[in-house]
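Lab manual, section 2.4: Encoding a predicted structure.

Procedure: take the sequence of the chain (309 residues), apply the prediction step described in section 2.3, and record the output as structure tokens. A sample record is shown.
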Amino acid sequence: MSAPKKRRSFLLADEETKSSAITNKKVKLSGERLKYRTVQTNSTKIEDEIRSHSELKKQYNIDLNLPENRVAVLLNDLHYEFMPPVMDKVYEFVSKTEHIRNNIQFSLDTNGRLDKILNREKVFQNWTDLKENGLKDIDFIKSLKKDNPAQYKNILSEGDQQFATTNNKLELDYHRDLLYLVLFDKHIKAVDLSNIPSEEYIYTSQLFPQIQVPMEIRYDVIEENNKSITIRKVADSILDDTLLKKIEEQYNILHKPLIKYSFTEYKLTFRTRYTVDKKTRVINDAELTIIEDVEHNIQSTCKYGIRKL
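Recorded output:
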């Protein structure tokens, strides 16, 4: 039997959404007011048997001001389910921090990607408010504080570091988030949507967290009409003997004790298909698939869908 679904709603009242949650005195945003829904499924297979599965559904409000290169993102609805359900209690806490992470304003760089977070002080204040007032009702945190006070203090310390205004890696955290990876990309700034140049991308492995895989990304047009263009973004991994040796070493440490079988062949698939409005440069819908595989032994699959409401 699947675990019961849980829901956390952060939908703000209309007046709140129009004011401080989206804008502040320093940055006035105007233009496109967008709503998106996303669905992300992650699964891990060992010898073709599914050992874990999760589904995350989110809804966002996004204010897009391309003339000023400004964007505001607000997560206002979140739904999650895990199998096995051991992660449910932990994610009750994580979902709170997701709300903080995704109540941001930022600038765009020349490639249309997230450049600088503009409301760092507000983000940190939201974390401080949660730490001081919002944690006492979360079962996972209450149990941790009672049974493992050292780990409880460590979680708070990690939050302080993550949301600190001085965290110089804060933007990097968003570059790995699928919402920002898909919605804010070269299609926003490209002079010619049908001829976006290739580039290199560094992928951080899900099976081997210490491994980074260089990839060559190309953008191919697969459909076009007067209003929109559909692009397929394909990333081919660049593997050499040195990198494969590191991957095998990590496999032997992390997975072989459980799986028993020796390292076989490493494969990585990374592709995105998305449709862009030619006039506004807004994505109407997109699908992303990442499959990381040590053939016949272990496989990690992520599927991510996003659509504009």
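Check your result against the sample. Confidence is low (pLDDT under 50) at residues 1-30.
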